[in-house]
Design goal:
By secondary structure, the chain is mainly beta. Helix content is 11%, strand content 36%. It is built from one helix and five strands. The chain has one helix spanning 71-79; strands spanning 16-24, 34-36, 43-45, 50-57, 63-68. A three-stranded antiparallel sheet has the order 1-4-5. Strands 2-3 form a two-stranded antiparallel ribbon. A hairpin with a 5-residue loop joins strand 4 and strand 5. The chain is globular, with a radius of gyration of 13 Å.
Length: 80
């Protein structure tokens, strides 16, 4: 599935809607940032390519960023 096809879908965790999905890397010289994959929990080096998903809380309108190891992890997250 194309990443853009996830936009507008409800988050599998409930209470939020996917507003953005994109390939991503976050590189800053001298800083190594890591985050866990939102699906499998594997620690991701954000300087390496991964998938960024922004979800918007339906009640507050606040957005949250989720990071996925790859498209397969994103697919599996939606499939449950």
């Amino acid at each position: 599935m194309a990443l853009s096809e996830y936009v507008g879908r409800p988050s599998p965790t409930g209470g939020a809607t996917v507003v953005r999905v994109a390939p991503h890397s976050h590189w800053r010289p001298g800083r190594n940032r890591t985050e866990p994959c939102a699906h499998c929990g594997e620690e991701l080096d954000l300087a390496s390519r991964h998938v960024l998903v922004e979800v918007e809380d339906e009640e507050t309108g606040e957005t949250d960023r989720l990071f996925f190891q790859n498209e397969r992890c994103l697919d599996e997250w939606f499939e449950g």
